[in-house]
From TrEMBL:
CDD domains on file: PIN_LabA-like
The protein, known as: Cell wall glucanase
Biased composition (Pro residues): 78-91
One GO location term (cellular component): nucleus
PANTHER family: NYN DOMAIN-CONTAINING PROTEIN, RAN GUANINE NUCLEOTIDE RELEASE FACTOR
Biased composition (Polar residues): 8-18, 111-139
Alphabetized InterPro entries for the sequence: Mog1
Organism, as annotated: [Torrubiella] hemipterigena
GO molecular function (one): small GTPase binding
Gene3D superfamilies: 5'-nuclease (3.40.50.1010)
Length: 417
C-alpha cells in the first residue's frame, strides 16, 4: 500500500483540496461534539485534544459540497502480529451526519428551490386582522416552487370565509403557446384512438362531431378540481373567480375532427344587466348557446328549539339540462340516417325534472348507431358512466374522458410576454 492509500484510510485529507485540513479523524470527533454558533464559523477553533483545527468555515464548506467524505471515518486496523496468514479485515464504516450549524433562518437558495418538487407547498400563516372593517391580504400561503423565477407569479386568490382575508396561490406561469403544446402532447394517445376508430367506423367518422356542453356542470367542477390540485379547502371561495379557457376546452372536445354542430347550455342569476363574458366567448367559438335564468327558491329552516324558522333563498337552475337534452334529440333525429359522434361534456347522468336524463339520451343515440364520448371532471362524473356492465355492451363506441389531467392548461392564467 502506498502513502496516498494509507493516508486515506487513517483519515488524513488529500492535498488536492483547497486547504490543508490536517488530521481529519481528530477533526471529526470535535465536530460531532461541537455545534458552533453561526457567527463564529469563521474563527479559529481548537479541539478537545488541543489540535488546532484552522478556519472552520472552510471545513464546513467542503463537507456541504461533498468534496470530503466528512460523514464517514475509519479507525486504523491493529498492527499485524508476526507473519499473519491473512490481512485483518477492515473496520466497518460508521456513517454519521454533520450537525447543522445554528444561526438565523434564511430564505432557501435557488439550488435548494430547484430540488423541491413541483407540488404546492403550504406555508399558511394566521389570518390578519381587519382594519376599519376591510380585510387585509395575508402573505402568500401556497407556493409551487419553480427554478425559473421570471415565470413565478400569482395563479389564484381565495378566501376561507365570507369577507375574510385573501390568500394566494403562486406557481409557474406558461405562455398560451406552451399550454397548447402541452395539451397537444397529452392528447396524443387519444388522437391515436380516434384514428383507430376512424378505420373501424369510417362512415360515422365522416359524419362529423356534435358537441353538447353543460357549462354549469363543467365550470363548477373545474373550480373543485383547482381546489384539489392546489390543496385548498373545498369550501374556500375564489376571488376573483378563475376562468376556464374555452378555446382549449373545445380543442379537447374536437381533437382536430370536423365539428358539425356545437351547443352549450348555461344559466345566469336573475336581474343581470349583461350576460357573463363566457357566453359571448362560446358564441365566438361557434356554439349555439341556450341561456336560462335561475329560479328563486325559498326554503324554511326550523330548529327543534324554536317554533319560528328562518327562510333562506337560493337560486337554482331551471330546465338547463332538459334544454341540452332536447338539442341531443334534435341532432339524433335530423341525422337519423347519418349518425356521427356525440361529445357530451357533463358528469351528470340522473334524470332531470322533466326528462329521462343524459344517460337515457346517450343510450338512445348509441342504439341509433352514434359513437358517444362523455367528457367530465372526475369529481362530478356519475357512477353510471363508470358502470362496466353498461359500458361493456357498447364496446369501443362509448368512452369517458376525464379533464383533470388538463387542469393546468385550462386555467386561463398565462404569461403575456
Amino acid at each position: 500500500m502506498d502513502e496516498d492509500e494509507e493516508s486515506s484510510q487513517t483519515g488524513s485529507v488529500s492535498s488536492t483540496y483547497p486547504a490543508s485540513l490536517g488530521d481529519f479523524s481528530s477533526l471529526r470527533e470535535s465536530l460531532i461534539s461541537f455545534q458552533p454558533q453561526h457567527n463564529i464559523l469563521t474563527n479559529e477553533w481548537q479541539g478537545d485534544d488541543n489540535v488546532k483545527l484552522g478556519n472552520l468555515s472552510k471545513i464546513v464548506s467542503q463537507l456541504r459540497k461533498g468534496g470530503i467524505s466528512g460523514s464517514s471515518s475509519r479507525e486504523p486496523s491493529p498492527r499485524p502480529q508476526s507473519k499473519p496468514t491473512s490481512p485483518a479485515p477492515p473496520a466497518p464504516r460508521r456513517e454519521q451526519s454533520l450537525p447543522p450549524a445554528r444561526g438565523p433562518n434564511r430564505l432557501p437558495s435557488e439550488n435548494v428551490l430547484n430540488g423541491i418538487s413541483s407540488q404546492t407547498i403550504s406555508t399558511e400563516e394566521p389570518p390578519t386582522k381587519r382594519v376599519n372593517g376591510t380585510p387585509t391580504a395575508t402573505r402568500p400561503n401556497h407556493v409551487a416552487p419553480t427554478s425559473d423565477f421570471s415565470r413565478f407569479g400569482q395563479i389564484l386568490s381565495y378566501q376561507t370565509e365570507m369577507n375574510g382575508s385573501l390568500a394566494f396561490v403562486f406557481g409557474t406561469l406558461q405562455t398560451i403557446q406552451e399550454a397548447r403544446n402541452a395539451l397537444s402532447k397529452k392528447l396524443s394517445p387519444r388522437k391515436k384512438r380516434d384514428a383507430a376508430l376512424k378505420r373501424i367506423y369510417p362512415d360515422v367518422a365522416s359524419n362529423g362531431v356534435h358537441i353538447f356542453l353543460d357549462m354549469s356542470n363543467i365550470d363548477i367542477s373545474f373550480h373543485k378540481c383547482l381546489r384539489t390540485r392546489h390543496q385548498l379547502p373545498q369550501d374556500s371561495r375564489f376571488n376573483p373567480m378563475p376562468r376556464l379557457n374555452l378555446t382549449l376546452l373545445t380543442e379537447i372536445l374536437l381533437r382536430g375532427r370536423q365539428a358539425d354542430r356545437m351547443f352549450a347550455s348555461c344559466s345566469i342569476l336573475p336581474g343581470r344587466s349583461a350576460e357573463p363574458r363566457f357566453v359571448q366567448d362560446l358564441r365566438n367559438l361557434g356554439y349555439s348557446t341556450d341561456v336560462r335564468t335561475r329560479k328563486r327558491v325559498e326554503e324554511l329552516e326550523q330548529t327543534s328549539a324554536s317554533a319560528i324558522g328562518t327562510t333562506t333563498v337560493r337560486y337554482v337552475e331551471d330546465l338547463v339540462d332538459e334544454t341540452l337534452q332536447t338539442r341531443m334529440a334534435e341532432s339524433a333525429m335530423s341525422c337519423f340516417q347519418n349518425p356521427g359522434t356525440m361529445v357530451l361534456a357533463t358528469g351528470d347522468a340522473k334524470p332531470a325534472q322533466y326528462s329521462d336524463g343524459f344517460l337515457a339520451y346517450v343510450e338512445r343515440a348509441l342504439q341509433m348507431g352514434w359513437n358517444v364520448e362523455v367528457v367530465s371532471w372526475r369529481s362530478s362524473l356519475s357512477t353510471s358512466w363508470r358502470d362496466t356492465r353498461w359500458k361493456g355492451q357498447w364496446g369501443d363506441r362509448f368512452s369517458v374522458i376525464e379533464l383533470d389531467e388538463f387542469v393546468d392548461e385550462l386555467l386561463d392564467c398565462y404569461m403575456t410576454h
